[in-house]
Amino acid sequence: MKVRLIALLIAVGGGIVGPKAVVAQVAALSPASDEQAVRDADNAFWHAFNACDGAAMAGFFAEDAEFYHDITGLTRSRAAIVASLIRGPCGTPGLHMRRELVAQSVRYQAIPGYGAMLSGDHLFYAREGNAPERPATLARFLVIWKRQSGRWLMTRIVSYDHRPAPYSPSSREIPLPADALRPYVGRYHTASGDVEITLEDDRLVLRSGGLKVSLGASAVGHFFARERDLRINFSGTSDISTIEIEENGAEVARGARVESR
Questions:
Q1: Which residue in 121, 162, 165, 164 sits closest to 141, CA to CA?
Q2: Are 85 and 42 contained in the same domain?
Q3: Which residue, of 26, 98, 148, 231, has the greatest Cβ tally within 10 A?
Q4: Is there a contact between 86 and 117 (Cβ–Cβ < 8 Å)?
Q5: How would you write the pLDDT of the chain (261 residues) with one tens digit per residue?
Q6: Residue 13 falls inside a structural domain
Q7: Distance set, CA 158 to CA 34, 104, 238, 240 (Å)
Q8: The model scores a pTM over 0.70
Q9: Is the Cβ–Cβ distance between 76 and 63 less than 8 Å?
Q10: At 190, which CATH number?
């Protein structure tokens, strides 16, 4: 800040000016109203994105905008960017994507003589068909905004560090002793492959193909995975004989017990 202030003192009027003039000049370089205007424009754009409104989205890009993405690469021009958004996130049948800002991560920075930049994290939620919405992807963004013809427009967009959204189970776990967990141990055959249930360190573990998750009990006979949105339900008349697995609220596997441990 000290270096910037010295540079400003030298630049204004070719000499040293008083503190009131310095404060006024700093305010002119980065007024609070510009920050709010950029944030409002950002919110309005993502409202249009969530609604898959291509015409509204187009109004927030400069004609020569460039979009850098760590998965899809570089897209140039307003028309091409909007087309890619409509074709991609908005164009997959049965899938709806919704973006939510991670508010505490957002940073605003003025770019003197040009505009401003907005950076932070955002979370994308996915809803497939009639299944419940679920957190899908977390990513970072940096957007360069420029005021043109009385409007704030995006000129450069960088979307990067895409990764699976962290999962937090919504079910409350109830403690069950090892003796109460042991009856569920065994191998279950389903149409999509065998499921192995083992007891390790007094907790149930599910393995199927390359999948391995630990299970917490939500009720007797009903479990959830701690690492992802899976629900596992066991049933049987005299003993545990069947398993049902749901992912994101939809059944993905059902089968019968073929081996006990």
A1: 121
A2: yes
A3: 231
A4: no
A5: 433 433 333 333 333 344 444 333 333 444 678 999 999 999 999 999 999 999 999 999 999 999 999 999 999 999 999 999 999 889 888 889 999 999 899 999 999 999 999 999 999 999 888 877 888 899 999 999 999 988 999 999 999 999 988 877 777 899 999 999 999 999 999 998 999 999 999 999 999 998 999 999 999 999 999 888 899 999 986 788 999 999 877 889 999 999 766
A6: no
A7: 21, 19, 58, 52
A8: no
A9: no
A10: 2.40.128.50
Strands 95-101 and 115-128: antiparallel
Containing H/E element for 34? helix 32-50
Task: Please tell me whether residues 108 and 206 are part of one structural domain.
Answer: no
Nearest to 32 by CA among 150, 116, 143, 121: 116
Q: What total number of domains does the chain contain?
A: 2
Helix (H) or strand (E) holding 216: strand 211-219
Regarding whether 215 and 145 lie in a shared domain, the answer is no
Report which DSSP code applies to 238.
Answer: S
| β pairing state of 151-164 and 61-69 | parallel
User: Residues 42, 119: one domain?
Assistant: yes
3-state secondary structure of 198: strand
For residues 92 and 63, give the distance between their C-alpha atoms in angstroms, rounded to a whole number. 26
